[in-house]
Protein backbone atom coordinates (compact mmCIF):
# COMPACT_ATOMS: atom_id res chain seq x y z
CA UNK A 1 0.00 0.00 0.00
CA UNK A 2 1.33 3.40 -0.90
CA UNK A 3 2.35 6.08 1.55
CA UNK A 4 -0.72 8.04 0.59
CA UNK A 5 -2.85 5.02 1.46
CA UNK A 6 -1.24 4.77 4.90
CA UNK A 7 -1.83 8.44 5.62
CA UNK A 8 -5.41 8.08 4.44
CA UNK A 9 -6.07 5.13 6.71
CA UNK A 10 -4.47 6.91 9.67
CA UNK A 11 -6.79 9.85 9.03
CA UNK A 12 -9.77 7.48 8.91
CA UNK A 13 -8.77 5.96 12.26
CA UNK A 14 -8.43 9.41 13.87
CA UNK A 15 -11.80 10.47 12.48
CA UNK A 16 -13.25 7.24 13.81
CA UNK A 17 -11.96 7.86 17.33
CA UNK A 18 -13.43 11.37 17.31
CA UNK A 19 -16.75 10.11 15.93
CA UNK A 20 -17.07 7.32 18.49
CA UNK A 21 -16.36 9.72 21.32
CA UNK A 22 -19.17 11.96 20.08
CA UNK A 23 -21.61 9.11 19.56
CA UNK A 24 -21.08 7.77 23.07
CA UNK A 25 -22.47 11.07 24.38
CA UNK A 26 -25.88 10.39 22.86
CA UNK A 27 -28.69 9.12 25.12
CA UNK A 28 -28.90 5.34 25.16
CA UNK A 29 -30.54 3.48 22.32
CA UNK A 30 -34.30 3.45 22.75
CA UNK A 31 -34.39 5.54 25.87
CA UNK A 32 -35.99 8.62 24.44
CA UNK A 33 -36.86 9.89 21.01
CA UNK A 34 -36.73 13.53 19.86
CA UNK A 35 -39.70 15.45 21.18
CA UNK A 36 -40.46 17.13 17.84
CA UNK A 37 -41.05 13.83 16.09
CA UNK A 38 -43.35 12.51 18.79
CA UNK A 39 -45.35 15.74 18.76
CA UNK A 40 -45.78 15.43 14.97
CA UNK A 41 -46.88 11.81 15.33
CA UNK A 42 -49.74 12.94 17.57
CA UNK A 43 -50.60 15.81 15.25
CA UNK A 44 -50.75 13.58 12.19
CA UNK A 45 -53.65 11.53 13.48
CA UNK A 46 -55.40 14.15 15.59
CA UNK A 47 -55.42 17.07 13.17
CA UNK A 48 -54.97 15.53 9.72
CA UNK A 49 -56.81 12.20 10.01
CA UNK A 50 -53.80 10.47 8.47
CA UNK A 51 -53.09 7.04 9.92
CA UNK A 52 -49.60 6.93 8.38
CA UNK A 53 -47.64 9.47 10.39
CA UNK A 54 -44.56 9.18 8.12
CA UNK A 55 -46.59 10.18 5.05
CA UNK A 56 -48.24 12.99 6.96
CA UNK A 57 -44.82 14.33 7.92
CA UNK A 58 -43.55 13.98 4.35
CA UNK A 59 -46.50 15.45 2.48
CA UNK A 60 -48.13 17.86 4.91
CA UNK A 61 -46.28 18.77 8.08
CA UNK A 62 -42.86 19.06 6.36
CA UNK A 63 -44.01 19.19 2.76
CA UNK A 64 -41.61 21.99 1.85
CA UNK A 65 -38.61 19.75 2.53
CA UNK A 66 -40.15 17.02 0.37
CA UNK A 67 -40.60 19.55 -2.43
CA UNK A 68 -36.86 20.19 -2.27
CA UNK A 69 -36.13 16.46 -2.41
CA UNK A 70 -38.54 15.97 -5.33
CA UNK A 71 -36.79 18.69 -7.29
CA UNK A 72 -33.40 17.20 -6.40
CA UNK A 73 -34.57 13.86 -7.81
CA UNK A 74 -35.78 15.64 -10.95
CA UNK A 75 -32.42 17.37 -11.33
CA UNK A 76 -30.58 14.08 -10.81
CA UNK A 77 -32.54 12.33 -13.55
CA UNK A 78 -32.03 15.28 -15.89
CA UNK A 79 -28.30 15.28 -15.14
CA UNK A 80 -27.96 11.57 -15.96
CA UNK A 81 -29.86 12.11 -19.19
CA UNK A 82 -27.36 14.84 -20.08
CA UNK A 83 -24.21 12.94 -19.11
CA UNK A 84 -25.21 9.74 -20.91
CA UNK A 85 -26.46 11.39 -24.08
CA UNK A 86 -25.21 10.44 -27.50
CA UNK A 87 -21.97 12.40 -27.85
CA UNK A 88 -20.30 13.67 -31.00
CA UNK A 89 -18.58 10.73 -32.62
CA UNK A 90 -21.06 8.16 -31.38
CA UNK A 91 -24.07 6.64 -32.98
CA UNK A 92 -27.11 5.04 -31.52
CA UNK A 93 -28.53 1.99 -33.15
CA UNK A 94 -31.04 -0.73 -32.52
CA UNK A 95 -29.64 -3.43 -30.27
CA UNK A 96 -27.30 -5.24 -30.51
CA UNK A 97 -24.91 -2.45 -31.43
CA UNK A 98 -21.53 -3.99 -30.82
CA UNK A 99 -20.13 -7.20 -32.15
CA UNK A 100 -18.08 -7.65 -28.98
CA UNK A 101 -19.19 -10.90 -27.43
CA UNK A 102 -19.62 -9.51 -23.94
CA UNK A 103 -21.65 -6.51 -25.13
CA UNK A 104 -24.44 -8.50 -26.68
CA UNK A 105 -27.17 -9.21 -24.16
CA UNK A 106 -26.91 -12.89 -23.31
CA UNK A 107 -29.98 -14.91 -24.25
CA UNK A 108 -32.02 -15.14 -21.09
CA UNK A 109 -32.96 -18.51 -19.73
CA UNK A 110 -36.58 -19.54 -20.10
CA UNK A 111 -37.14 -19.69 -16.35
CA UNK A 112 -35.87 -16.15 -15.80
CA UNK A 113 -37.92 -14.82 -18.67
CA UNK A 114 -41.12 -16.53 -17.56
CA UNK A 115 -40.88 -15.46 -13.93
CA UNK A 116 -39.81 -11.91 -14.75
CA UNK A 117 -42.54 -11.29 -17.31
CA UNK A 118 -45.25 -12.78 -15.12
CA UNK A 119 -44.13 -10.54 -12.23
CA UNK A 120 -44.24 -7.26 -14.17
CA UNK A 121 -47.99 -6.56 -14.04
CA UNK A 122 -48.48 -7.53 -10.36
CA UNK A 123 -45.43 -5.43 -9.41
CA UNK A 124 -46.77 -2.34 -11.20
CA UNK A 125 -50.15 -2.87 -9.55
CA UNK A 126 -48.54 -3.32 -6.15
CA UNK A 127 -46.47 -0.18 -6.58
CA UNK A 128 -49.54 1.85 -7.55
CA UNK A 129 -51.42 0.42 -4.55
CA UNK A 130 -48.61 1.34 -2.17
CA UNK A 131 -48.38 4.87 -3.56
CA UNK A 132 -52.14 5.47 -3.52
CA UNK A 133 -52.61 4.19 0.03
CA UNK A 134 -49.64 6.14 1.38
CA UNK A 135 -51.73 8.17 3.79
CA UNK A 136 -53.63 5.18 5.21
CA UNK A 137 -51.18 2.36 5.76
CA UNK A 138 -47.52 1.49 5.28
CA UNK A 139 -46.09 2.96 2.13
CA UNK A 140 -46.16 6.25 0.33
CA UNK A 141 -45.13 7.87 -2.90
CA UNK A 142 -41.42 7.16 -2.78
CA UNK A 143 -41.86 3.48 -1.95
CA UNK A 144 -44.53 2.94 -4.63
CA UNK A 145 -42.46 4.73 -7.23
CA UNK A 146 -39.38 2.63 -6.47
CA UNK A 147 -41.45 -0.57 -6.79
CA UNK A 148 -42.83 0.47 -10.19
CA UNK A 149 -39.30 1.29 -11.37
CA UNK A 150 -38.24 -2.19 -10.26
CA UNK A 151 -40.99 -3.55 -12.53
CA UNK A 152 -39.44 -1.68 -15.49
CA UNK A 153 -36.08 -3.22 -14.60
CA UNK A 154 -37.79 -6.65 -14.62
CA UNK A 155 -38.78 -6.20 -18.27
CA UNK A 156 -35.17 -5.56 -19.17
CA UNK A 157 -33.96 -8.48 -17.07
CA UNK A 158 -36.34 -10.73 -18.97
CA UNK A 159 -34.43 -9.91 -22.10
CA UNK A 160 -37.26 -7.89 -23.61
CA UNK A 161 -35.39 -4.67 -24.12
CA UNK A 162 -37.45 -3.45 -27.09
CA UNK A 163 -40.60 -4.09 -25.07
CA UNK A 164 -39.17 -2.00 -22.27
CA UNK A 165 -38.66 0.90 -24.68
CA UNK A 166 -42.22 0.52 -25.94
CA UNK A 167 -43.85 0.17 -22.51
CA UNK A 168 -41.99 3.12 -21.02
CA UNK A 169 -40.72 5.34 -23.87
CA UNK A 170 -38.47 8.15 -22.74
CA UNK A 171 -40.80 10.83 -24.06
CA UNK A 172 -43.63 9.46 -21.93
CA UNK A 173 -41.34 9.18 -18.90
CA UNK A 174 -40.31 12.81 -19.32
CA UNK A 175 -43.96 13.85 -19.31
CA UNK A 176 -44.93 11.79 -16.25
CA UNK A 177 -41.89 12.97 -14.32
CA UNK A 178 -42.79 16.58 -15.06
CA UNK A 179 -46.41 15.94 -14.05
CA UNK A 180 -45.17 14.50 -10.77
CA UNK A 181 -42.78 17.28 -9.81
CA UNK A 182 -44.83 20.09 -11.34
CA UNK A 183 -48.03 18.74 -9.88
CA UNK A 184 -46.53 18.96 -6.41
CA UNK A 185 -45.86 22.67 -7.02
CA UNK A 186 -49.32 23.21 -8.50
CA UNK A 187 -51.03 21.65 -5.46
CA UNK A 188 -48.95 23.92 -3.23
CA UNK A 189 -49.87 27.00 -5.23
CA UNK A 190 -53.56 26.06 -5.23
CA UNK A 191 -53.39 25.84 -1.44
CA UNK A 192 -51.72 29.27 -1.42
CA UNK A 193 -54.46 30.67 -3.66
CA UNK A 194 -57.19 29.53 -1.29
CA UNK A 195 -55.51 31.42 1.55
CA UNK A 196 -54.18 28.45 3.51
CA UNK A 197 -50.44 28.96 2.95
CA UNK A 198 -48.12 27.21 0.49
CA UNK A 199 -48.62 23.42 0.56
CA UNK A 200 -51.33 23.68 3.19
CA UNK A 201 -53.81 20.83 3.48
CA UNK A 202 -56.95 22.23 1.83
CA UNK A 203 -58.88 19.17 0.68
CA UNK A 204 -61.54 17.61 2.93
CA UNK A 205 -59.98 15.51 5.68
CA UNK A 206 -62.56 12.74 5.67
CA UNK A 207 -62.49 9.86 8.12
CA UNK A 208 -59.19 8.41 9.31
CA UNK A 209 -58.38 5.04 7.77
CA UNK A 210 -60.41 5.42 4.60
CA UNK A 211 -58.91 5.86 1.13
CA UNK A 212 -60.42 9.31 0.60
CA UNK A 213 -59.08 11.01 3.71
CA UNK A 214 -56.27 13.21 4.94
CA UNK A 215 -56.79 15.87 2.29
CA UNK A 216 -53.85 16.61 0.00
CA UNK A 217 -51.58 13.96 1.54
CA UNK A 218 -52.93 11.22 -0.72
CA UNK A 219 -52.77 13.43 -3.80
CA UNK A 220 -49.17 14.45 -3.15
CA UNK A 221 -48.26 10.84 -2.42
CA UNK A 222 -49.51 9.74 -5.85
CA UNK A 223 -47.74 12.63 -7.60
CA UNK A 224 -44.45 11.83 -5.91
CA UNK A 225 -44.94 8.16 -6.78
CA UNK A 226 -45.30 9.17 -10.42
CA UNK A 227 -42.16 11.27 -10.26
CA UNK A 228 -40.01 8.72 -8.44
CA UNK A 229 -41.08 5.91 -10.78
CA UNK A 230 -40.37 8.00 -13.86
CA UNK A 231 -37.02 9.25 -12.59
CA UNK A 232 -35.74 5.79 -11.60
CA UNK A 233 -37.06 4.21 -14.82
CA UNK A 234 -35.32 6.96 -16.82
CA UNK A 235 -32.06 6.16 -15.05
CA UNK A 236 -32.40 2.47 -15.91
CA UNK A 237 -33.27 3.20 -19.52
CA UNK A 238 -30.33 5.57 -20.04
CA UNK A 239 -27.86 3.04 -18.66
CA UNK A 240 -29.31 0.25 -20.80
CA UNK A 241 -29.17 2.46 -23.85
CA UNK A 242 -25.58 3.47 -23.13
CA UNK A 243 -24.43 -0.10 -22.65
CA UNK A 244 -26.25 -1.87 -25.45
CA UNK A 245 -27.06 0.69 -28.09
CA UNK A 246 -24.51 3.51 -28.18
CA UNK A 247 -21.15 2.83 -29.70
CA UNK A 248 -18.27 4.63 -31.34
CA UNK A 249 -19.01 5.71 -34.89
CA UNK A 250 -17.17 3.78 -37.54
CA UNK A 251 -14.64 6.22 -39.10
CA UNK B 1 -19.46 1.93 26.15
CA UNK B 2 -22.38 -0.42 26.63
CA UNK B 3 -25.01 -2.29 24.69
CA UNK B 4 -27.06 0.87 24.79
CA UNK B 5 -24.82 2.47 22.21
CA UNK B 6 -24.32 -0.53 19.91
CA UNK B 7 -26.42 0.78 16.96
CA UNK B 8 -24.58 4.12 17.03
CA UNK B 9 -21.24 2.34 17.05
CA UNK B 10 -22.42 0.19 14.17
CA UNK B 11 -23.24 3.32 12.17
CA UNK B 12 -19.73 4.58 12.91
CA UNK B 13 -18.27 1.21 11.80
CA UNK B 14 -20.16 1.31 8.49
CA UNK B 15 -19.05 4.89 7.89
CA UNK B 16 -15.41 4.10 8.64
CA UNK B 17 -15.29 0.95 6.49
CA UNK B 18 -16.87 2.86 3.61
CA UNK B 19 -14.36 5.65 4.06
CA UNK B 20 -11.44 3.22 4.28
CA UNK B 21 -12.68 1.60 1.06
CA UNK B 22 -12.74 4.97 -0.68
CA UNK B 23 -9.28 5.95 0.55
CA UNK B 24 -7.62 2.73 -0.59
CA UNK B 25 -9.55 2.29 -3.81
CA UNK B 26 -7.98 1.95 -7.25
CA UNK B 27 -11.19 1.71 -9.22
CA UNK B 28 -13.81 4.43 -9.61
CA UNK B 29 -16.78 2.05 -9.54
CA UNK B 30 -15.46 0.48 -6.32
CA UNK B 31 -15.21 3.99 -4.85
CA UNK B 32 -18.77 4.80 -5.87
CA UNK B 33 -20.17 1.70 -4.20
CA UNK B 34 -18.22 2.41 -1.01
CA UNK B 35 -19.74 5.90 -1.09
CA UNK B 36 -23.21 4.36 -1.30
CA UNK B 37 -22.40 2.22 1.75
CA UNK B 38 -21.30 5.38 3.55
CA UNK B 39 -24.69 6.94 2.87
CA UNK B 40 -26.43 3.98 4.45
CA UNK B 41 -24.57 4.57 7.71
CA UNK B 42 -26.40 7.87 8.03
CA UNK B 43 -29.74 6.10 7.61
CA UNK B 44 -28.88 3.63 10.35
CA UNK B 45 -27.86 6.45 12.71
CA UNK B 46 -31.05 8.44 12.04
CA UNK B 47 -33.33 5.49 12.69
CA UNK B 48 -31.40 4.50 15.80
CA UNK B 49 -31.90 7.99 17.22
CA UNK B 50 -35.63 7.86 16.63
CA UNK B 51 -36.16 4.43 18.20
CA UNK B 52 -38.01 3.91 21.48
CA UNK B 53 -38.24 0.74 23.54
CA UNK B 54 -41.68 -0.90 23.66
CA UNK B 55 -42.97 1.36 20.90
CA UNK B 56 -44.32 0.38 17.50
CA UNK B 57 -44.25 1.73 13.95
CA UNK B 58 -45.93 5.15 13.51
CA UNK B 59 -48.81 3.66 11.51
CA UNK B 60 -52.12 3.96 13.29
CA UNK B 61 -54.46 2.01 11.06
CA UNK B 62 -54.52 -1.08 13.25
CA UNK B 63 -53.41 0.18 16.66
CA UNK B 64 -55.23 2.59 19.00
CA UNK B 65 -54.29 6.25 18.78
CA UNK B 66 -52.60 6.47 22.19
CA UNK B 67 -50.01 3.70 21.74
CA UNK B 68 -46.32 4.67 21.94
CA UNK B 69 -44.66 5.05 18.53
CA UNK B 70 -41.14 5.61 17.25
CA UNK B 71 -40.21 8.93 15.70
CA UNK B 72 -41.77 9.44 12.22
CA UNK B 73 -39.65 12.46 11.25
CA UNK B 74 -36.39 10.51 10.98
CA UNK B 75 -38.19 7.84 8.96
CA UNK B 76 -39.42 10.51 6.55
CA UNK B 77 -35.86 11.88 6.22
CA UNK B 78 -34.49 8.39 5.53
CA UNK B 79 -37.08 7.50 2.88
CA UNK B 80 -36.37 10.59 0.80
CA UNK B 81 -32.61 10.17 1.25
CA UNK B 82 -32.68 6.57 -0.02
CA UNK B 83 -34.36 7.48 -3.30
CA UNK B 84 -32.48 10.72 -3.96
CA UNK B 85 -29.20 9.04 -2.94
CA UNK B 86 -29.80 6.38 -5.58
CA UNK B 87 -30.17 9.08 -8.23
CA UNK B 88 -26.93 10.71 -7.05
CA UNK B 89 -25.10 7.36 -7.19
CA UNK B 90 -26.44 6.81 -10.71
CA UNK B 91 -25.07 10.21 -11.73
CA UNK B 92 -21.65 9.29 -10.35
CA UNK B 93 -21.72 6.01 -12.28
CA UNK B 94 -22.59 7.92 -15.45
CA UNK B 95 -19.56 10.14 -14.90
CA UNK B 96 -17.38 7.06 -14.37
CA UNK B 97 -18.58 5.59 -17.67
CA UNK B 98 -17.74 8.78 -19.55
CA UNK B 99 -14.36 9.11 -17.83
CA UNK B 100 -13.55 5.60 -18.91
CA UNK B 101 -14.41 6.49 -22.49
CA UNK B 102 -12.03 9.46 -22.45
CA UNK B 103 -9.07 8.03 -20.57
CA UNK B 104 -9.48 4.29 -21.03
CA UNK B 105 -9.14 3.47 -17.35
CA UNK B 106 -11.00 3.78 -14.08
CA UNK B 107 -7.99 4.44 -11.87
CA UNK B 108 -8.54 7.58 -9.76
CA UNK B 109 -4.78 8.08 -9.48
CA UNK B 110 -4.61 8.61 -13.24
CA UNK B 111 -7.16 11.40 -13.27
CA UNK B 112 -4.90 14.23 -12.20
CA UNK B 113 -4.61 16.50 -15.20
CA UNK B 114 -7.38 18.76 -16.44
CA UNK B 115 -7.69 18.24 -20.12
CA UNK B 116 -9.84 20.10 -22.61
CA UNK C 1 -32.21 -4.65 22.47
CA UNK C 2 -33.82 -7.75 21.11
CA UNK C 3 -31.88 -10.66 19.65
CA UNK C 4 -33.23 -9.98 16.15
CA UNK C 5 -31.89 -6.44 16.32
CA UNK C 6 -28.45 -7.65 17.35
CA UNK C 7 -28.37 -10.21 14.53
CA UNK C 8 -29.46 -7.60 12.00
CA UNK C 9 -26.79 -5.18 13.24
CA UNK C 10 -24.11 -7.84 12.87
CA UNK C 11 -25.27 -8.68 9.34
CA UNK C 12 -25.08 -5.02 8.37
CA UNK C 13 -21.59 -4.70 9.82
CA UNK C 14 -20.33 -7.82 8.02
CA UNK C 15 -21.82 -6.92 4.63
CA UNK C 16 -20.55 -3.34 4.88
CA UNK C 17 -17.01 -4.61 5.49
CA UNK C 18 -17.57 -7.03 2.61
CA UNK C 19 -18.47 -4.25 0.19
CA UNK C 20 -15.36 -2.26 1.06
CA UNK C 21 -13.07 -5.29 0.96
CA UNK C 22 -14.28 -6.86 -2.31
CA UNK C 23 -12.03 -5.56 -5.04
CA UNK C 24 -13.71 -7.23 -8.00
CA UNK C 25 -16.49 -4.80 -8.85
CA UNK C 26 -18.89 -7.38 -10.27
CA UNK C 27 -18.83 -9.35 -7.02
CA UNK C 28 -18.98 -6.09 -5.10
CA UNK C 29 -22.33 -5.28 -6.76
CA UNK C 30 -23.78 -8.54 -5.46
CA UNK C 31 -22.38 -7.97 -1.96
CA UNK C 32 -23.91 -4.49 -2.12
CA UNK C 33 -27.27 -6.07 -2.85
CA UNK C 34 -26.79 -8.31 0.19
CA UNK C 35 -25.94 -5.20 2.25
CA UNK C 36 -29.20 -3.64 1.08
CA UNK C 37 -31.15 -6.70 2.19
CA UNK C 38 -29.40 -6.70 5.59
CA UNK C 39 -30.36 -3.04 5.96
CA UNK C 40 -33.96 -3.87 5.08
CA UNK C 41 -34.02 -6.41 7.91
CA UNK C 42 -32.45 -3.88 10.27
CA UNK C 43 -35.01 -1.22 9.39
CA UNK C 44 -37.82 -3.69 10.03
CA UNK C 45 -36.45 -4.47 13.50
CA UNK C 46 -36.35 -0.70 14.16
CA UNK C 47 -40.12 -0.51 13.46
CA UNK C 48 -39.68 1.38 10.18
CA UNK C 49 -41.63 -0.65 7.58
CA UNK C 50 -41.93 2.15 5.02
CA UNK C 51 -38.19 2.73 5.08
CA UNK C 52 -37.55 -1.02 4.70
CA UNK C 53 -39.80 -1.07 1.63
CA UNK C 54 -37.94 1.80 -0.02
CA UNK C 55 -34.53 0.30 0.80
CA UNK C 56 -35.46 -3.12 -0.59
CA UNK C 57 -36.72 -1.74 -3.89
CA UNK C 58 -33.92 0.75 -4.45
CA UNK C 59 -30.85 -0.93 -3.01
CA UNK C 60 -31.87 -4.46 -3.93
CA UNK C 61 -32.98 -3.98 -7.52
CA UNK C 62 -32.20 -0.60 -9.03
CA UNK C 63 -28.67 0.12 -7.81
CA UNK C 64 -27.06 -3.29 -8.49
CA UNK C 65 -28.59 -3.23 -11.98
CA UNK C 66 -27.16 0.21 -12.72
CA UNK C 67 -23.73 -0.82 -11.44
CA UNK C 68 -23.67 -4.00 -13.52
CA UNK C 69 -24.75 -2.10 -16.64
CA UNK C 70 -22.00 0.47 -16.09
CA UNK C 71 -19.48 -2.34 -15.60
CA UNK C 72 -20.59 -4.05 -18.81
CA UNK C 73 -20.05 -0.82 -20.70
CA UNK C 74 -16.64 -0.27 -19.13
CA UNK C 75 -15.39 -3.85 -19.47
CA UNK C 76 -16.04 -4.10 -23.19
CA UNK C 77 -13.47 -1.41 -23.91
CA UNK C 78 -15.83 1.42 -23.09
CA UNK C 79 -16.34 2.31 -26.69
Give a quick summary of the entry.
The complex is a heterotrimer of chains A (251), B (116) and C (79). Chain B has helices at residues 6-23, 28-49, 72-103.
Protein architecture, described:
The complex is a heterotrimer of chains A (251), B (116) and C (79). Chain A is mainly α. Chain A contains 9 helices and 2 strands, in the order ααααβαααααβ. Chain A has helices at residues 3-23, 35-48, 53-61, 63-83, 110-132, 141-157, 161-167, 170-193, 216-244; strands spanning 90-92, 246-248. Chain B has one domain: Helix Hairpins, CATH 1.10.287.3510. Chain B has 3 helices and no strands. In chain B, helix 1 runs antiparallel to helix 2 (28-49) and helix 2 packs antiparallel against helix 3 (72-103). Chain C has one domain (3-75). Chain C has 79 residues and is mainly α. Helices cover 85% and strands 0% of the residues of chain C. The A-C interface holds A 29-30, 52, 54-55, 98, 100, 102-103, 130, 138-140, 142-143, 146-147, 149-150, 153, 156-157, 232, 235-236, 239-240, 242-243, 247-248 and C 1, 49-50, 53-54, 57-58, 61-62, 65-66, 69-70, 72-73, 75-77, 79.
Overall pLDDT level of chain C: 92
Biggest beta sheet attributes of chain B: none
Kindly, what is the distance between the CA atoms of the first and last residues of chain B, rounded to a whole number of angstroms?
Answer: 53 Å
Q: What is the end-to-end distance of chain C? A: 52 Å
Order of helices and strands of chain B: HHH
Secondary structure tally: strands of chain C:
0
Total number of domains of chain B: 1
Low-confidence stretches of chain C: none
Output the helix-strand order of chain C.
HHH
Helix content of chain C: over 70%
Give the structural class of chain C.
Answer: mainly alpha
The radius of gyration of chain B is 19 Å
Q: Using DSSP, what is the number of strands of chain B?
A: 0
> How many domains is the backbone of chain C divided into?
1
